[in-house]
Amino acid sequence: MANSKVQYTADGSTQAFAVTFPFISRNHVSVEVDGVAATFTWNNDSQILISSPTLSGGEAVLLIRSTSQDTRLVDYVDGSNLTETDLDLDSKQAFYMAQESLDELTLFDDDATATSGYIWVADGTDFKSVAVSGDVTISTAGVVTLGAGAVETAMIEADAINGTRLADDAVDSEHYTDGSIDTAHIADVNVTTAKIANDAITGAKIALFDDSYAATNGHILVADGTDFDNVAMSGDVTISNAGVTSIGSEVITNADINGSAAIDASKIHNGTVSNAEFGYLNGVSSAIQTQLNSVVAGAVSDVQDDSFRIQDNGDNTKQLAFQASGITSGTTRTLTVPDSSDTIVVLAATQTLTNKTLTSPVIDGTWSSYTTSTGKALVMGF
Which of 107, 167, 314, 350 lies deepest, with the highest CB count within 10 Å? Predict the structure, then answer.
């Protein structure tokens, strides 16, 4: 039984504990809670009150007497009177110090030896000399060594391991929690296409696309000044989901056609009018039919011979053209039509002249006999 200390186990209902040993001064008494110095006051010489910490129950409360070892409480002087009080105080100091030393010695097992590498460990009664084993060992120089594989997760303080304590390329995907990697832990410009699953990115993840866009059949992406959204192509042109565009009926206006488009005549009406024929309209300043209707005798003054044709009413490929190139420059020749329906006589063709009067004819060549209109024979020879 200890003479200079007493230990309690707190029950959480009181902060007051009895002092069961004698002492010379209150200053020689200290209190520990779970091995840490506690703050206390005295209710009286036989009871203290712990003010800090507050006990919840289960704590080890130790009251210890430590009599002054540095200063003698009684100093004898030659010629002084010896009193009982002085003698008792002097002997108490020595007696209490002896008790305190013995209390410490009784904590060590009587059979303990200084075995190499052994340490003193308390078993609740006293300290015994034992070998260090398990997760750590200790040398005679006090060097403690952790055993291989001895450190477990529960032994490591949270956030205690930093990058300098990890081997290069040592952490793989099975050693970090699902969903634990956030944006701050991905280096800039380090997510490549190969790291993105097929069809994994939605419009909400692309800044240029509207968050609500979808692949609606036949829709296209059109920007609105902020982002792209899917809209149906409408108006003058529509598009299929194969990319085939269609111009709507009756939507092309004159303003839509480029001034240099040079649209071919085959694209107009049924395509029977050629580009050359359309070219003939060049310079027309008013309605053509009106101009034709206004043509009367003497009204037309000049017509180019290569622009004027008379066509057969049954076959427009049969045409009559006039050629004025044989006329002397600056000269106008007039052809007068007789008051009779007849056939035009030409130079190169073989024709029969009936009821014709020749006035002062000049006849060249060899003639045979001919019968005149009066039945008289005409024989000429050269």
Answer: 107
